[in-house]
Specification:
Layout: E1 3-7, H1 14-22, E2 28-35, E3 42-43, H2 46-51, E4 59-65, H3 70-77, E5 81-87, H4 93-102, E6 106-111, E7 129-133, H5 148-162, E8 167-171, E9 187-190, H6 192-195, H7 200-247
Parallel strand pairs: 1-2, 1-9, 2-4, 4-5, 5-6, 6-7, 7-8, 8-9
Antiparallel strand pairs: 2-3
Bound molecules: D-xylitol-5-phosphate and zinc ion (ZN).
Zinc ion (ZN) binds next to strand 2.
Length: 248
């Protein structure tokens, strides 16, 4: 079953929304950090999460959109964090990956829309998660970019070939419509779509089932095709037998 990570980047009332997510069926709270360089705007809710650390129930999925994430790796590693993700576009990734691992925290690499998937290849042995950006990073509430599903498929193939257990997250523009195309994702990050809802659990469940439903539909279609092919083959064999019968 897909996991849902709720992004608080576009929240207007952080304390209230964090409480809402904590009481919801979400699996993670997605925290975005921006340094004003790698992405244009600057944001970091660390102080608030540090203050709330006794109350925060959901595990944190931290997305560092920074050129130099060292300080925030140390900070977030002391909270209830399951994943720390840095970007594949930054320098000295090996050093940062080693730092995250040292804390015993799962390592993620995020990839921007314009970065070719080959950039991930050298790191496959060292990571647990790939965040595929569905939008250009920096802001919540943007529209999902069309080519993202093709990129996810390429990444999925790459992971299968590597024989490693690497999860795929899709981040940006995930809503009730786009989630229908995201059957290869393991974790869906959604911010504005989930938080805008009156009942956030309804939206979380819809995202989960939309993506899972597609998998079942595809599986049923494949099974049907297989059955039809077997039927065709049997029919062809029968006609052959009949023809040879006649010939005799
Ligand atoms: C984009 C962030 C996303 C964003 C998702 O830079 O990394 O996590 O907040 O928000 P929505 O779901 O509104 O696109
Ligand atoms: Zn994010």
């Amino acid at each position: 079953m897909k996991k849902i990570s709720v992004s608080i980047l576009s929240s207007n009332n952080l304390v209230k929304d964090i409480q809402k997510i904590n009481l919801s069926k979400a699996d993670y709270i997605h925290i975005d950090v921006g340094d004003g360089r790698f992405v244009k705007n600057k944001f970091n809710p660390y102080k608030l999460f540090n203050k709330l650390s006794q109350e925060t129930i959901k595990r944190l999925d931290v997305h560092l959109m920074e050129n130099k994430p060292r300080k925030n790796i140390h900070r977030y590693a002391s909270l209830n964090t399951e994943y720390i993700t840095i970007h594949v576009e930054i320098e000295k990734k090996e050093k940062y990956i080693a730092m995250i691992k040292e804390y015993g925290i799962k390592v993620g690499l995020a990839i921007n829309p314009d970065t070719p998937v080959d950039a991930l290849e050298p790191y496959l042995n060292d990571i647990d998660l790939i965040i595929v950006m569905g939008v250009y990073p920096g802001y919540g509430g943007q529209t999902f970019l069309e080519d993202t599903d093709k990129k996810i498929l390429k990444i999925k193939n790459m992971i299968v070939k590597s024989k490693r257990d690497i999860k795929i997250t899709v981040d940006g523009g995930v809503n009730d419509e786009t989630s229908k195309r995201l059957d290869f994702a393991d974790i869906l990050v959604s911010g504005s779509y989930v938080l805008k809802g009156e009942n956030i659990d309804e939206r979380i469940e819809l995202l989960r089932t939309n993506a899972d439903k597609l998998k079942t539909t595809k599986r049923t279609a494949r099974r049907k095709m297989k059955e039809e092919n077997i039927e065709k083959k049997t029919r062809r064999k029968e006609t052959k037998v009949k023809l040879t019968d006649k010939e005799e």
